[in-house]
Write a sequence for this structure.
């Protein structure tokens, strides 16, 4: 089955700096890579996703890059703000009869003033 | 807005008890999932279902079973609760069948087994 590794487990940045979270996956058949944000006490919510026919996708201050050859994908947050503080999860999925997401172990991002 | 509702936010049960966790979604989604969330381990898939009466094992199905008698409802059952099943349980739904897409999560059920 799929295995997703995520680094770092914790990340502290100053407000206004950039943050990068990296993930690797094992199954070359995976073709869908979402990122979820979970604020304290809340449910995880999708913030951005990318499919394997695209190398990069951007949405305002958030971008995701995908390297299928190396089986890497990364989340980039620019101009971080205190409300970006949360746990971020990457995930990978193969499209099939039932799309099953395998999650990474999460990165706790702390944006300090 | 998609709404995924989990019946209980907090439960405390004793070892050996049978536990039912209920999840209902209101958007006619084909796919439903049960994940378990533990610190440092992320979200791990227990079971999922892509149609009524269909179920598939996830990565950690041992000690759990599921039921999907109606499209909108997906139940997780712990036949005989054990202390190592103390955790946060998250239900999720998505659509369409056969295409990887956004998961809509419930608020979670925190289960403590004494």
């Amino acid at each position: 089955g799929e295995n997703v590794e995520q680094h770092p487990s914790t990340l502290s940045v100053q407000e206004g700096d950039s943050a990068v979270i990296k993930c690797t996956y094992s199954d070359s058949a995976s073709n869908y890579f979402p990122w979820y944000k979970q604020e304290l006490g809340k449910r995880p919510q999708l913030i951005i996703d990318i499919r394997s026919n695209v190398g990069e996708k951007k949405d305002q201050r958030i971008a995701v890059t995908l390297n299928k050859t190396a089986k890497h994908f990364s989340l980039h947050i620019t101009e971080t703000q205190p409300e970006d503080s949360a746990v971020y999860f990457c995930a990978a999925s193969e499209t099939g009869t039932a799309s099953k997401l395998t999650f990474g172990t999460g990165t706790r991002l702390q944006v300090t003033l | 807005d998609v709404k995924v509702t989990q019946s209980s936010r907090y439960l405390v049960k004793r070892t050996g008890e049978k536990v039912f966790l209920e999840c209902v979604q209101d958007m006619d989604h084909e796919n439903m999932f049960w994940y378990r969330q533990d610190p440092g381990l992320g979200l791990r898939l227990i079971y999922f279902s892509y149609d009524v009466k269909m179920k598939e094992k996830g990565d950690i199905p041992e000690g759990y079973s599921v039921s999907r008698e109606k499209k909108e409802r997906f139940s997780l059952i712990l036949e005989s609760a054990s202390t190592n099943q103390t955790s946060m349980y998250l239900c999720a739904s998505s659509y369409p069948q056969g295409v990887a897409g956004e998961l809509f999560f419930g608020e979670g059920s925190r289960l403590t087994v004494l």
Remarks:
- The mean pLDDT of chain B is 93.
